[in-house]
Amino acid sequence: MMSIDIEWARAELASFLKLTELYSPPDPPGVVVFSSRLANRGGGREIVASAQVVEQILDRVLPRWRTEVPDDRNKSVNRWCQHREAVQRADAVLLREAEVRERLGDDAPQVSAAAMHRWVWDGARSLWRSGHFREAVTAAARKVNAETQNKVARRDVSETALFQSVFSKDAAKLGQPRLRLMADDGSDTFRSVHRGAMSFAEGCFAGIRNPNSHEDGLPELPEHEALEQLAAFSVLARWVDAAALDEP
């Protein structure tokens, strides 16, 4: 489970369920109405405001809720039926997560896709929330590549060739600026840092991005594996974002 304030999230879900509870409104005084009409306990604006927060919780806890939870009763019964069932499922997940943490005392650090570098999460967000984890990683890789091209103002190279150039230990040339993770003091550390960054970038694109993009029929990535791959591109993105631009 990605990092989340379980107590707060469950309180928000409970509030939404209370607002969207269905009941039969009483007849006006002196009037008898024969109707099976049901209404929500809360007002429309209040429910919409709550749904805005609840949907973000659902996207974290049940990324595929929009497609996996049936919505057929939204029109025949009430527009919030799909949300209510998703909320009930998410609450069960959160309840069990809280129980596991309490019973096992698991205090291991948690990783959230939303906590990745902004380039990575901006690229992956929409696909990630629909459960397309492999495509989300590929989109994040494209975003990191594009932002790196923007930083060095180059469109003639991309991916492995791009990072081999920007992290090269050679001095910057006309049309070939470098990204410096530390000042060039002629030390072994300078050479090691930039050689490592170049190799790491090559591994990200050759070992993660290319297979995800070019191999047909691959099964969907498990979420935890996709998180690991996103984390690799997040490291690369932070290096690029923090690097100093060195131009001739």
TrEMBL record:
The record's listing under InterPro entries reads:
CHP02391 (IPR012654)
Keywords assigned by UniProt, alphabetized: Endonuclease, Hydrolase, Nuclease
**Which part of the chain is the Conserved hypothetical protein CHP02391 domain?**
116-240
| Nuclease found in the keyword field | yes
A molecular function (GO) held by this record is: endonuclease activity
Q: What's the protein name?
A: Restriction endonuclease
